[in-house]
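hiii, so i know i said id send this last week but things got crazy w the move. better late than never?? heres the sequnce for the chain we talked about at the cafe, plus the structure i predicted for it. fair warning i was half asleep when i ran it
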Amino acid sequence: MIAQQLSQKLGIPVYDRAYIGQTLDQNDYSDEAQLIRELAEKPCIILGRCACEILKDKPNAFHIFVTADKEDRIRRIMEQESLSYEDAQELLEKSDKERAEYYYQQTGKVWGDVNNYHMILDTSRLGVENCADILMKYFERIDVI
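okay and structure toks below
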């Protein structure tokens, strides 16, 4: 949600797992990292896919980790997917496990480690709208926009 708000405000695209996977399937890229590096040549938002590690040496890349309390995340999944509490909790735990494993397999690092990011935003405390505003103010301050 934050990425979509920033995309609209900044007029830049958002690339997620679905987009990257589809692009890899339809084009001649040797791997995901190559595609991410190419996408990052122009202003954009890349969600996940170990982009913070792939672009760690790119000086104009800004790495953000968005988190929320587990209960808030479960409620959000319940609403979005029309699931029971138990099913949403199971889906969340499975998703988090898969993300952590993927990140470790690709980078050898721990997913969510604060040392891998420039900023961590907690939507449970700050709210989604405020997180997008915080980032916009930061980007304005450093003359990115």
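btw The helical segments are 2-10, 17-26, 32-39, 51-54, 70-81, 85-107, 123-126, 128-141. thought thatd interest u
miss u guys!!
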